[in-house]
Write a structure and sequence with these properties.
This protein has 6 helices and no strands. By secondary structure, the chain is an all-alpha fold. The chain has a domain at 1-54.
């Protein structure tokens, strides 16, 4: 007799319960567990409401879509029916928005990255030019001081 971990059971039961609500036959074929075992797991999960169900990412997205147009009262009723806290639903909504926003940002960032590279090259070129100019100015200053020291030495000897 095979033994399954609690995490495996929870994932299987999550597929059976709303919002995914897959049929027992589908889940049994997909995960290789008998239908009677899945029925027992589901009845245990429904009998023990304290135990939190695990929501798959697809189920979370479906929940966000299902509740998007609802007012607060009906959204609260939906949350009570499905065993979800309203703040969890808000977090899932933010996660969905962030997930949908990332591909667009990546496309924009590629163009911006090209512009940034060009700007970096220009700035590096300008820094090299200014470093050279600064080195030249420092050399001229040193030479000027040495020349003044040499000529003032000869002036002092002439007097």
């Amino acid at each position: 007799m095979a033994r399954y971990g609690q995490e495996f059971r929870d994932k299987a039961v999550a597929r059976l319960l709303p919002p995914e609500s897959a049929s027992i036959k589908e889940v049994a074929l997909a995960i290789g567990v008998s239908e009677s075992t899945l029925e027992r797991w589901r009845s245990e999960a429904l009998a023990n409401p304290v135990q939190r169900r695990e929501w798959t990412p697809a189920a979370r997205f479906e929940a966000v879509l299902a509740t998007a147009t609802m007012d607060e009262a009906s959204k609260g009723a939906w949350c009570r029916t499905n065993g979800v806290y309203p703040h969890e639903l808000a977090v899932w909504r933010e996660q969905a928005i962030n997930a949908l926003a990332q591909p667009g940002e990546k496309r924009v960032s590629a163009a911006e990255a090209k512009q940034d590279k060009r700007r970096i090259k220009e700035l590096e070129r300008e820094v090299r030019r200014k470093d050279k100019a600064l080195a030249e100015t420092a050399a001229l200053l040193v030479l000027t001081k040495k020349a003044e020291a040499i000529f003032s030495k000869y002036k002092a000897e002439d007097e």
